[in-house]
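Throughout this chapter, every protein is written as a compact record of paired, labelled lines. The reader may check this reading against the record printed directly beneath this paragraph:
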Amino acid sequence: MNDSDSAQQEFLNLRDSANNAHLATLSSDGSPEASYAPCICYQGDCYFFLSELASHTGNLTRNPEISLLLIESVATTANAFARRRISLHGNALRVSRDNDLCNLVLAEFRDRFGKVMDVIGELPDFHLFRVQARAGRFVRGFGQTYELVGEKLDHLRAVDPRR
């Protein structure tokens, strides 16, 4: 496996195994707000199951702009400064509960997070959001940054550090 193939596999592994993300949304006054939420990546898209009680849910309902960070666990990396990470920028749109996709994704949440989904899955204040990413980056380590390209932002293009 060449280095490009290796980077591609590391990107897909991190994306597909992510179970949480740091979110950046815009508050009602337009200021940035950082938060956290459990997530899954299903068929190349990131999903969040969010309560209306969380400020990020209100933020996304008013303004769907979102930036999110999927990051390698500090427990599995040798250097905290070189943690693998994926940043995505786009819109988070609500998926209707009567949509078949909602049922499929919530089943994935149940598989990943267990019985808590039996409780919160039926609560009316929880809503499924799908991130429609339009740009992103994968940082593999020092001097190893890639733009995400392709229709589903699932391919890598190396970023020239001299630019």
